[in-house]
Prior knowledge:
Shape: globular
Oligomer: single chain
Distance between the termini: 25 Å
Amino acid sequence: MLAFDGGSTKTDVVLVSRAGTVMGRARAGPSNHQLIGVEGTIDALAQAVTAVLEDAHLPGRARPICTTGVYCLAGIDLPVDEDILGAAIEAQGWTAHAIVRNDTFAVSRTGTTSPWGIGVVCGTGMNCAAVGPDGRTVRFPALAELSGDFAPGGAWLGVRALGLALRAADGRGEATVLRELVPAHLGEADAEAVLTGIYTGAIPYARLFELARVLLDAAAQGDAMARQAADTLADEVVTFVRAAVVRLDLQDEIVEVVLGGGVFDTGDTAFLDRVAAGVRAAAPKAVLIRLDAPPVLGAALIGLDAIGAPANVLAAVREALAADAAADASSGR
Length: 333
C-alpha cells in the first residue's frame, strides 16, 4: 500500500505491506494543487513515488505498484477537488485503487485509536474533518473568509498581531505589548516599518505566520488585546468541533478529538484550556489528543482500515512510523 500526506511545503509517502512492514519512506516537495496546480501536484506525487520505491529497493517497479493508494492532500476542500485530483491520480496507475481525501483526515486517524473520531489542524490555516462510528464523514471547505471561517488559523492570528500593533501605534486601538514585540521579532523599528516591508515584499508575507507565536506568548503574559485575539481563534476551533459533533450525533459518545498543527504547540495554557472546555461543552465525554506522530501514519492506517487489516498490523505500522519520526526529530531532519 502507498500512503501519502501532502501539504503546502512537503509530501511524505510510505510503502507498507499487508503484514504491516514499512518497506520504504520518502519525502518530496509540496503537493497542494491550490498553490502549484494539478500538474504540479502530480509531479510532486510522482517524485515521491520514485523516491519511496528507491528507498524500498524496488526502483522501476511496474504499475500498479500495489493494490491500494491513500492520497491525503492539502487543498482537497470541495467535492470538485476530489473529482479533479482523483481522476488525475487514477490516470497515473500507481495503485489499482485510490482513496483521495483531505489531509485533515490523516491527522485525525493518526491520533485516534479507532477508524473514527475528529481531527482539527490549526497551523498556517485551519480545518476539521471527522468520521463517525457509522462511517459518515464531515469536512469543511476551509477557504478562509470565502467559506465563512472567521479566524482561519495561524496566518490570521499573525495578521491580527500586526493589526493590533499598528492600531496601538496610531491611536485606533488599545495599548498592547505587540506594538513592541511585533517589530522586534521581525527586526524592524516599528509596526509601520513591518507593514511597509510586507507591502513592498521586502518581508515575505509568509513570515506573518511567525507572529502567531508572538501573539500567543503575549497573551500568556497577560496582554489583554492578545488574549482577546487568542480567545477568538480558540472559539473558532471549538466551533468546527461542535459542528462535527452535532452533524455526526456524537454528543453522548466517547469521541477522540485530535489537535494537530503548530498553533497548538504553545505555552499559552489559557488558549489550550479554552479549546478543551469548549470541546467538552459540546461533547462531555470527548477525549482530547495532541498529535505526536507524523500524519502520513494516519494515511497508512486509513488504507489498512480499508482492507480490513487486523489490530496487530495497525500497531506494527504505528510503532514503526512513530519510531522513525522520533529518530528524525533527534537527528534534526
